[in-house]
Q: What sequence folds into this?
């Protein structure tokens, strides 16, 4: 199975850093700078592991998560935020996030989260 | 403040019976000076006085940063609409008619002081809201570059042997990022307004106390 994931963040430096980290960990990484761009990519490609920044231009991360969750019930969706108060835990769970990380997050934690996500997907598919 | 010493003594007696401490002035200039120095919780101000009247004195008090928030109750024998309107326009909080009744005076004082406490509370809440919004913006803006520096310094450390001459520098960069991340974490935990003295008269928010860590 090709391990492809999507990183959505409006800051190019963060997108590039996540890409480099996850590429080194063996993943194919797609990048989007907005919710709209993310939906465009997800329409064309089968991606089931997604890291979402919460504060995005246009559609925010929580609304984007809701939209993605409708079409991808087993996808693993992680919120990544620079400000914890933007993330209301109950709202985040209700929107469909599996977990969240507060920036700056250790990139080893991000790599481990990606690994856990693919293991979870694998179990679902095998089971 | 009253230019009539008999009125002053009578009002002082009424107030001291209820536990209020008072200072007196017999003219506007003395009242303004005392208010700046003593910063009382409330000022009782006669309107009709020689030289500067009570209304003008009140305007001066309102313009001065040191006295602008002190409630002023006018004590006046004149109750015509024109004077009362001027009293409020000059910044007065309330008025009491002469001859002064103890019950009316004490009720008006109590009400003005409660109002002052309420305003202070609202201002504190406003200050806290502003501080939290600022803290949120600072956290968000700082955590973005911190994420990038932290990520790339970790990647560099992965690529370097521990014996590399630059390894120590990269470790230091990462440690300092962690230190800054700890500060933004504290900022995110702010729940109340707390300030401390920095240098001289400058005050800064005490992040540890404001976030409940002390």
A:
């Amino acid at each position: 199975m090709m391990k492809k994931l999507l990183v959505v963040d409006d800051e190019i430096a963060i997108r590039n850093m996540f890409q480099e980290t996850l590429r080194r960990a063996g993943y194919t990484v797609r990048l989007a700078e907005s919710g709209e761009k993310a939906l465009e990519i997800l329409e064309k490609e089968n991606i089931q592991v997604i890291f979402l920044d919460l504060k995005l231009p246009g559609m925010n991360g929580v609304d984007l998560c809701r939209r993605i969750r409708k079409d991808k019930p087993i996808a693993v969706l992680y919120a990544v935020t620079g400000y914890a108060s933007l993330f209301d835990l109950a709202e985040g769970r209700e929107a469909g996030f599996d977990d969240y990380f507060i920036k700056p997050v250790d990139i080893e934690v991000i790599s481990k989260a990606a690994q856990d996500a693919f293991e979870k997907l694998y179990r679902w598919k095998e089971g | 403040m009253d230019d009539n010493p008999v009125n002053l003594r009578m009002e002082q007696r009424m107030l001291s019976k209820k536990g209020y401490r008072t200072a007196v002035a017999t003219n506007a200039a003395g009242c303004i000076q005392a208010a700046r120095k003593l910063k009382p919780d409330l000022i009782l101000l006669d309107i009709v006085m020689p030289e500067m009247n009570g209304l003008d004195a009140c305007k001066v008090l309102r313009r001065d940063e040191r006295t602008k928030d002190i409630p002023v109750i006018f004590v006046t024998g004149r109750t015509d609409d024109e004077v009362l309107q001027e009293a409020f326009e000059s910044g007065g909080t309330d008025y009491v008619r002469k001859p002064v009744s103890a019950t009316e005076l004490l009720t008006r004082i109590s009400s003005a002081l409660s109002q002052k406490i309420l305003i202070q509370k609202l201002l504190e809440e406003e200050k806290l809201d502003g501080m939290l919004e600022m803290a949120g913006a600072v956290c968000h803006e700082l955590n973005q570059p911190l994420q990038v520096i932290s990520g790339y310094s970790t990647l560099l450390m992965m690529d370097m042997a521990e014996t590399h001459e630059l390894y120590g520098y990269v470790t230091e960069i990462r440690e300092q990022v962690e230190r800054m991340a700890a500060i933004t974490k504290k900022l995110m935990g702010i729940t109340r307004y707390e300030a401390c003295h920095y240098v001289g008269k400058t005050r800064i928010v005490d992040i540890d106390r404001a976030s409940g860590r002390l």
Summary: Chain A touches chain B at residues 11, 13-14, 17-18, 20-21, 24, 55, 82-86, 102-108 (CB under 8 Å). The longest strand of chain A covers residues 76-81. The radius of gyration of chain A is 13 Å.
